[in-house]
Amino acid sequence: MRLSPVLRAGALVAALALAVTACGGKSQQAAAGGDSLVDRAKAANKLTIGIKFDQPGIGLKTGDTYTGFDIDVANYVAQKMGVDPKNITFKQAPSAQREDLIAQGDVDLVIASYTINDNRKQKVSFAGPYFVAGQDLLVKSDNTSITGPDSLNGKKLCSVSGSTSAQTVKTKWANDVSLQQYGGYSECITGLLNGTIDAITTDNVILQGYASQPANVGKLKVVGKTFTSEPYGIGFKKGDTKTQQAIDGYIQNMEQDGSWAAALKKNFGADYKVPDAPAITEK
Q1: 3-state helix vs strand vs coil in the chain, percent to 5
Q2: 278 closest CA partner among 129, 79, 111
Q3: Which of 155, 192, 232, 276 is least crowded, fewest Cβ atoms below 10 Å from its Cβ?
Q4: Residue 173 CB-density burial (10 A; 0-12 exposed, 13-18 middle, 19+ buried)
Q5: Are 48 and 106 spatial neighbours (Cβ–Cβ below 8 Å)?
Q6: How many CB atoms sit inside 10 A of residue 244's CB?
Q7: Are 94 and 53 in contact (CB under 8 A)?
Q8: CA angle, corner 229, sides to 55 and 193, nearest 5?
Q9: Tens of pLDDT, residue by residue, the chain (283 residues)
Q10: Do 69 and 57 meet the contact criterion of CB atoms below 8 Å apart?
Q11: How many CA atoms lie within 13 A of 7 on its CB side?
């Protein structure tokens, strides 16, 4: 069937309109997908943040309540991003899954005692650090024989399965230490309290969290001789420079306005010696 000139012109106009609409829609989708997390979060007033659920003082889920230093950092950063903390969804972020959770879009941020290192920087971007931890030892309060990793020969040292902390001690400082690996730190704590092990090793703030639990106050102490450096960062999708710069600024604000030190005292006890705030590193 042959179309009249008028119909042909109308069809051409309609086709052009559809093409423009399609191009315009694609551009909007590209813009929506290409803007920064900090912009999207403010517009949507919501965030999904990966945290630890099982680290007292750092990130702990008790019923429907979340507590810990990382939670306080998350709430502070969210508010600065324009998100009401009530609109944060916290999601468990086990150590081995953190990069995948970010890459797959299951979380927007990971704030979970997440050490910045070169290997991880190949996969995700980081802001911070907001804290620098260090590997240390937890012992009974009355223990005077364990003063550091080099005093562990002949002792029983506990860490969790899959962790390299205890092996680091054996390799570098005490080759005659007996390593005990349990499924979780709570099992190590039980062993320490009943005397079947002599010390536990992991990051000092994680150990401090356990020492500060009401049931353990006065019974356990952190030795206080760190022997590694673990800069904790906030992780998000790789390449989001605007979000990185923004969160670096929020971390500095938290350190400067007193909120950072207050959060550490709240979570690790009034006697906790607050360290100097870390400098933001170049990425």
Answers
A1: 45, 25, 35
A2: 129
A3: 276
A4: middle
A5: yes
A6: 23
A7: no
A8: 40
A9: 444 444 444 444 444 343 433 333 322 222 334 589 999 999 999 999 999 998 899 999 999 999 999 999 999 999 999 999 999 999 999 888 999 999 999 999 999 999 898 999 999 999 999 999 999 999 999 999 999 999 999 999 998 775 778 888 999 999 999 999 887 788 899 999 999 999 999 999 889 889 988 899 999 999 999 999 989 999 999 999 999 999 999 999 999 999 999 999 999 888 888 999 999 987 6
A10: yes
A11: 4
- Global confidence as pTM: 0.77
- Which residue matches tokens 């390299």? 164
Q: Are 112 and 231 in contact (CB under 8 A)?
A: no
Nearest of 233, 171, 173, 231 to residue 203 by alpha carbon: 231
Distances (CA, A) of 243 to 38, 77, 126: 5, 11, 9
